[in-house]
Specification:
elongated; Homeodomain-like_sf (chains A, B); HTH-type_TetR-like_transc_reg (chains A, B); 2 domains; HTH_TetR (chains A, B); HTH tetR-type domain-containing protein (chains A, B); 10 helices; DNA-binding (chains A, B); Arc Repressor Mutant, subunit A; homodimer; DNA-binding
Chain lengths: ~190, ~190
DNA sequence: CCATTCACTCAACATCCGTTGACCGAGCGC
DNA sequence: GCGCTCGGTCAACGGATGTTGAGTGAATGG
């Protein structure tokens, strides 16, 4: 309504993007089950039926909202690995992308989100495992690294544990660094 | 019905316990929202109305099912701390108690469960923080320790990440130990 | 042996949610 | 200018869920 003059296709794309943004925000905040199509539609200033028309079903809307999770960038040196991991955590950017948060929020209660999470985390594990020095436990160590970062992300972004919420990102990174180094270094 | 001869009070206590067990199992498996009172009742071989009569509401049933989470045992030495933490993880016992799993499963999507989780994890953090050597970052390091264990618990018990699921518990503990030691040791 | 208690069931209500089909009106091409 | 396309709305259905109130039958206690 307030947009004065636009091509029909442009308006169409704009409202679709508005719906997707509202969906991402609500999915990230409340998770899949507690996010209703009606709430997404209201937040986007649109009729619920339109959401269905554009995305087919609530499931497909969720999939579309979460899809923007980028894979881990190609790992370079084994030393820069830890820095890269800390960046992945999103501590440097003040937060993970909302689509990722939506997936994390729902991963424990929605089987489809759990599959998505397992796949994404599995890819991370494989990437890190390949960058680690050759060792029988490389994959397991990579899994522990990813689990550690997952725990910090959950505690910080999703649960808001007070010591984490109030701490500056670089201090968290500084304290985490030796722990990640210990996990990535064979101990024999 | 199959129980042949019992006092009325005993039967009553038995069915209440059966309901609680079914509730814990389903809450741990599917989380708060996806667990229906009808399903709990069916699993306990009972009418849904009886669940209401005994526990008042679905919320109170959940609270009762989750309540059995024990606080951290009084921390002794600063060296045994890491061992104790690994025990808390439940790796040695093949799994955390089902009430704890129920709370963890729902903590990202149910605000009440999130409060419960924040409180329980906060208590853990305080306990560990007090056991750490005096340092300005003690509480933050304790929070990172708890987050790490939370991440491993989630990845292992709730998501079932394959490298973690297939690894023997003592190997996970062995790899985790130096990382936890790095977190609990001031680095200056 | 009888009245009462009490564990337990049955049927129903109210609400909410995902989803659908008919419908409307403004912008587009001709 | 006209008819068609299409972005968008409206009203409704069907199912599931938490919750309730009346009812039933067996164990209890006197």
């Amino acid at each position: 309504m307030p947009t004065p003059h636009q091509s029909r296709a442009a308006r169409r794309r704009a409202t679709e993007a508005r719906i997707l943004d509202s969906a991402r925000e609500l999915f990230a905040e409340r998770g899949f089950d507690r996010t209703t199509i009606r709430a997404v539609a209201a937040s986007a200033g649109v009729d619920p039926a339109l959401v269905m028309q554009y995305f087919g079903s609530k499931r497909e809307l969720f999939t579309a909202a979460v899809q923007a999770v980028p894979a881990a960038p190609p790992t370079a040196g084994p030393d820069a690995l830890v820095d890269q991991l800390l960046a992945t955590l999103g501590l440097k950017l003040g937060g993970l992308p909302e689509g990722t948060l939506a997936m994390l929020r729902s991963m424990l209660t929605d089987p489809a989100a759990a599959d998505h999470a397992r796949a994404a985390l599995g890819r991370q594990i494989d990437g890190i495992g390949a960058a680690l020095p050759e060792d029988a436990d490389a994959e397991l160590r990579a899994a522990l690294v990813v689990s550690t970062l997952l725990g910090v992300a959950v505690g910080h972004q999703l649960l808001g544990l007070s010591p984490l919420r109030d701490a500056p990102a670089d201090r968290i990174a500084a304290l985490l660094r030796p722990a990640l180094a210990a996990l990535t270094t064979p101990t024999h």
